[in-house]
TrEMBL record:
Listed PANTHER family: BLR5716 PROTEIN, DUF427 DOMAIN PROTEIN (AFU_ORTHOLOGUE AFUA_3G02220)
Residue ranges constituting the DUF427 domain according to the UniProt record: 15-104
Domain of life where this protein originates: Bacteria
Stored InterPro entries: DUF427, DUF427_sf
The protein, known as: DUF427 domain-containing protein
Length: 113
C-alpha cells in the first residue's frame, strides 16, 4: 500500500496559466504519495472556476477514487486536461472533496508566494 498523507500546505499558494492568476489560497492542501512529487490542492472557492471547463477525461486512482479533469480556457489559449478534482473521493481521502489540483507545465505554474 502506498502511503498518502494530506496536510495544510504552509503559506500562500498561487496557480497561473498564460500569465493570468487562476487563484491564490492560504487554505491549500499538500498531498504526498509515496515517492511522487507533492501535489497542491486548491479549494474551489479560491480558484476562478469560470476558466475551467470539465472534459470527458476521467482517471481512476485505487487510493483516491475517480478524478474528473478540466481544461483551462482563457482568451489566448486552451490547456487541455490541465487540472483534476475528486468529485466523490473514497472515504479515506474525503478531505480532497471540493479541491482542485493542476498539472504543472510550460503554461501552468503552481508556486508558493
Amino acid at each position: 500500500m502506498v502511503e498518502i498523507t494530506i496536510h495544510k500546505a504552509p503559506g500562500k499558494w498561487c496557480v497561473r496559466s498564460g500569465g493570468a492568476v487562476l487563484g491564490e489560497s492560504t487554505n491549500a492542501l499538500e498531498l504526498t504519495e509515496g515517492d511522487l512529487p507533492s501535489v497542491i490542492y486548491f479549494p474551489r472557492a479560491d480558484i476562478a472556476m469560470a476558466f475551467l471547463d470539465m472534459t470527458d477525461k476521467t482517471t481512476h486512482c485505487p487510493h483516491k477514487g475517480d478524478a474528473t479533469h478540466f481544461s483551462i480556457v482563457n482568451k489566448s489559449s486552451v490547456t487541455e486536461n490541465a487540472a483534476w478534482s475528486y468529485e466523490d473521493p473514497i472515504p479515506a481521502m474525503a478531505e480532497l472533496k471540493g479541491y482542485v489540483a493542476f498539472y504543472p507545465s510550460d503554461t501552468v505554474k503552481v508556486e508558493q508566494i
